[in-house]
Write a structure and sequence with these properties.
This protein is of the alpha/beta class and about 350 residues long. It has helices at about 1-35, 45-50, 55-65, 95-105, 115-120, 125, 130-135, 160-165, 240-245, 265-270, 275-290, 325-345, and strands at about 40-45, 65-70, 85-90, 110, 135-140, 140-145, 150, 170-175, 185-190, 205, 215-220, 225-230, 245-250, 295-300, 305-315. The protein has a six-stranded mixed β-sheet with strand order 5-6-15-14-11-12. Helix 1 (about 1-35) packs across helix 12 (about 325-345) and helix 3 runs parallel beside helix 12 (about 325-345). About 25% of the residues are buried.
Amino acid sequence: MRMKEDSSYDRSVEEAEGEETTSQCSIGVLQQQQRKLVVVGYALTSKKTKSFLQPKLEGLARNKGISFVAIDQNRPLSEQGPFDILLHKLTGKEWRQILEEYRQTHPEVTVLDPPDAIQHLHNRQSMLQCVADMNLSDSYGKVGVPKQLVIKRDASSIPEAVTKSGLTLPLVAKPLVADGSAKSHELSLAYDQYSLRKLEPPLVLQEFVNHGGVLFKVYIVGEAIKVVRRFSLPDVTKWELSKNAGVFRFPRVSCAAASADDADLDPSVGELPPRPLLERLAKELRRRLGLRLFNLDIIREHGTRDHFYVIDINYFPGYGKMPEYEQIFTDFLLSLAQSQYKKKSC
């Protein structure tokens, strides 16, 4: 009997010691986090640096113990730092190779995001494939992608290819390469078969879906989601389609200046997509894409309440246009640093 009591006592002591160790570990992580400055190295274009690293973000980051350090592209990356997090949005095969080698030799540094995963979004043929493969549909709605066709060469063959594919006019024409350059944002709307010959391959032709002239930009920062409304292209009626001809160029479907958040919109047009649907979509895309910083351009098919289309995905978008981005982004960086400290300390 005594031995059983002792055995019970020993287990309770071990459990208490285990709890104490866990507690000490948590306290140690917290103390280490409080002492240590989170160093974020960044490799961005001058334009991206100006739009992202705004004074309010830098000020809030300093108050939270986050330091942004510019990466010198004229020096070997391995000789710089040390960094806790590496933030980047540069293009080019040489940079991708440098970054991949750095990831292999510095596994303790969180790279946002892996270059190979980002490359997947630079091609509009593959960009939306993961959304199409998901075939997401639940009680909150259905998410798909518009029917599209890839044309890699020979503009004269486009009308016949469109007819064979069964695509319906009008069609949105987008450059096949989506690398963030000005050219990659040069979109066109083609109203008739004859005008399709005027387009310049390589490109993606996407069926235009009437959506009430409103687009939803869904910003994703880790697990955080922020949605804003933007004015978009107006609907095209059958009468307009029969009367119009030609190719009409436009810079992009939406922009920050065309915010629709304060507009007096018809609820059937302006109602945001259901939050549970967006959370499920974002979670699945984070897993499939291997990315944590991206946004989605989503439209609701006009005349429906729950049928949505993803028409574009962008890596490291213009977060400076996202409301409260300073708080959301700094919280995200701290959560990454905290995860790192836990791995090292426990």
